[in-house]
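Notebook p. 47: complex prediction with adenosine monophosphate.
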Amino acid sequence: MNLILLGAPGAGKGTQAEAICKEYHIPAISTGNILREAIKNGDELGLKAKSYMDSGKLVPDEVVIGILKERLKSDDCKEGFVLDGFPRTLPQAEALDKMKINIDKVVEINVPDEVILERLSGRRVCEKCGATYHIQNKKPKVEGVCDFCKEKLVRRKDDNVETIKDRLKVFHDQTEPLKEYYLAQNKLCVVTEYGSVESSRKATLDAIRGNI
Ligand code: AMP
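Predicted complex, C-alpha cells below:
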C-alpha cells in the first residue's frame, strides 16, 4: 500500500505515519527527517537545505524529488510506504506520477491554523531520537529531558511563532492545491479529527480502510 499524508506542519502527520507503519508494516518516509539528518551529519545536502528550513521556506523541488527517488529505491519500500511531508508542491506530485508509482490513497489531516500555532510553538524535540513533546500537553517525565534516551530536548529552529506563520502560509499557498490534484484522481480522503492522538489515529486508519 502506497500512501501519502497531506497536512500542514504540526497537523500530526508524523504521529499518524508511525501508527500506519505499525498497522501495515511499511516504512514512513519523512523528507523533513531526511533533511534534518543531513544537516546533523554536515552533508552537502544539509548545507543546501539548512537556510530554507530555518526560515520556513520549501527546499527546492529538484533537491527533495532527488531525495525521494533515492529513498524509494530501497528494499523496504517494495511492499509500500507512507509519505509524510512529500509532496508539498504540484511539481513534486507530478514527479511522483512520472516515477510511475501508484499512490493508493492520500489522507489529508485537516487541523485549524490556531491549533497548529499552539502545538508547534510549544513543541520540544529530542536532539537524539527525534521523540516529540509539548510544554503543556505532552510533558516529559523530567523537564527538558527525553523519556527514552535521556538527551536534551530542544525547540526546533523553525518552531518560533513568526516562522510557524510563514510555514502555514507556504502550506496554504503551495501544498493545499494538491487536495484538488488528488481529488481529481479520486484518491483524497479528509480526516478532521484532531482532538486527541488516539482519536485522530483511529480516524486516519478508518480513512485508509475506506470507512470514512
Ligand atoms: P517537516 O519536518 O516535514 O515539517 O519539514 C521541515 C522543513 O523541511 C520544511 O519546512 C521544508 O523547509 C523542508 N521540507 C521537508 N519536506 C519538503 C518537501 N517535500 N519539499 C520542500 N521542502 C521540504
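Notes: The CA atoms of residues 170 and 177 lie 11 Å apart. The first strand starts at residue 2 and ends at 7.
Next step: compare against the earlier run before touching the bench.
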